Write a sequence for this structure.
């Protein structure tokens, strides 16, 4: 079972929050290939968001091959954990990158802005915004 929440005060739209949380749950192993995720109407009711919001997140998950709609009309995780590295290993690598940036003379704010720029570009590419 996964826990999905929507922060209505977030800068990210609810559908992106849902999408990202499902992808994250897969990446850390909380969701595995073959697991069923809640129907969009039920999740929408639980999160107090519009059905179309959840549907948009699910549609993008389907387009990216992360989930599929089974013959029984259930959403199923089709993509297992793509990267077997643990989350801790990921952050270790990020620390090395940050240390390298600092060694090259970049200030904290410059590093933060560079990461934001990369994430914004990736988000536009992924979501088409």
């Amino acid at each position: 079972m996964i826990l999905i929440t929507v922060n209505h005060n977030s800068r990210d739209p609810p559908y992106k929050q849902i999408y990202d949380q499902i992808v994250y749950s897969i990446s850390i192993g909380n969701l595995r290939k073959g697991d069923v995720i809640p129907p969009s109407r039920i999740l929408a009711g639980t999160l107090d968001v519009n059905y179309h919001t959840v549907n948009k997140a699910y549609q993008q998950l389907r387009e990216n091959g992360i989930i599929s709609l089974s013959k029984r009309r259930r959403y199923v995780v089709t993509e297992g954990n793509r990267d077997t590295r643990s989350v801790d290993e990921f952050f270790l690598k990020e620390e090395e990158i940050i240390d390298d940036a600092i060694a090259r003379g970049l200030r904290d704010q410059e590093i933060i802005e560079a990461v934001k720029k990369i994430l914004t570009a990736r988000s536009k590419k992924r979501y088409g915004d």
Observations:
- The domain at 14-77 is CATH 1.10.10.10 (Arc Repressor Mutant, subunit A).
- The helical segments are 14-27, 40-47, 51-63, 87-103, 108-127.
- The chain has two domains: 14-77, 87-127.
